[in-house]
Specification:
- By secondary structure, the chain is an all-beta fold.
- The protein has one domain: Methanol Dehydrogenase, Chain A, CATH 2.140.10.
- 3% of the residues lie in helices and 38% in strands.
- The protein contains one helix and 38 strands.
- The strands form ten sheets. The chain has a five-stranded mixed beta sheet with strand order 1-32-33-34-35, with no helix packed on it.
- It is globular, with a radius of gyration of 21 Å.
Amino acid sequence: MRRINLILLFLLISTGQAWPQNPSPGDWPSYARDYGSTGYSPLVEIQRENVSKLHQICAYSLPEQTTFESSLVVLNGTMYFTTSEYTYALDASNCNLRWRVRRELQNPGRTVRGVAIEGNRLYRGFSDGYVVAYDLGSGDQVWATRLTETDGGPSTIAASPAAWNGMVFIGTSGAERACGCVVAGLDGATGRVLWTFALAPTGNAPGAETWPKGIRVGGGSVWTSLSIDTSSGSLYVSAGNPGPDFFGDYRPGANLFTGSVVVLDARSGALRTWYQLVPHDVHDWDQAAAPTLVNTRSGRHRAMAAGKDGYLHGIDIDSKSIAWKTPVTSIVNADVPLSPDGTYFCPGTGGGVLWNGPAFSPEANLVFVNSMDWCSTVKLDTKAPVFEPGKQFLGSANAFGEKDERKKGWVTAIDADTGVVRWRRETPQPMVAGIAVTASGLVFTAGLDGDLLALDAATGKVLHRMSLGTPVGGGVVTYQSGGKQRIGVAAGLDNTILQTKGRPIVIVFGL
């Protein structure tokens, strides 16, 4: 064991990943493992030569039917995850329940994608806009704080929070009703809101000048999680589409900060910079996943952002510029205006990269992205929509469009320095699950076809495939338990938009 730990330490240093972001090698303590959302683990027990020996160690079937899109967080031998009303803690070695706590909601059923942990506190959001802190050991509630939107109205939360330096960070969502969405920084001890930042700003706030006056300004949903560069204290936030989703004439202009990666001072919430990746979006192309913060082989500091526009964007942090953008799914009619007769485009309103974003291998210098190839036909409404609080505000005559009957998925590996595709693997069904990358050169992920895949990071070759029998849209993680490496999967995605049906289950694999 001592020899393995020394190897892990060497790998951390030699790959340039000995950042403050890195947790203990055997844990997966946040949404995409570390503050930089890299999905990278230094574990090496499971390798190319033995990965075919993986088998199920244990499983936990959730005693509820729910949309199960949560990541899995593993810390000190306990696994944590969420559903719309419940927060779970399992023994990570045998899947036995340690505690489960419910917060009853008036309108349950919406997804919430995970937890954040710092010290002896676990934090999560709820669809009624509350952020709640629990005691990590017992599940007892410590505090609850409700966030409000920029107009003072109630908010909705789907994202997993991030916790750092005694603070909790989370964003609200609901662009389809033209939310006044915000990012908030809260005191981790008390739940007091220390600052908020408007992602669809009004008045004299930064970015408000990019919207016309006299309209409902809304959008900028935060759907997944956030990333933190702890060395600079920068909080990276991916913001979704503006509202109304499709009727662009209602809101001429760039519509900041929708379709953007926004960089804030984590302590104060002050704007540092932003990168608008989809200006004046009219396709419902959210930036829905947390950006991945990496040091490339050539020494570049970059944020890798992938969204529903179907591109992976390589953002150069030092020069504050977009170094490259690379398509990771079909791009068709992206610049063709929407019309009342119907416009066919790809990615469609359900396509591109959804809530689980990129992962990074420092050894291979590759960024890995799951995506959905699914096109849509949207018919623009013949007249401008009228905003009504709490109701959908879309500007289309056929809601989110008619989806193509054909759909498939991709796993794509892209050089972090150049943006060149090194390999691409097509899958029979869309790929929306999390990705775990290991120092042994493996990539673990899963698809809506129910298959768990172990891929060679360098070539994309499928080294092992296991049928789970249920679609996967939640976390795929790796951790240590009892000195043994494990793979955990949040499976059983039940999602009407993606047309999947499954019973939620957590499954753990090992050698």
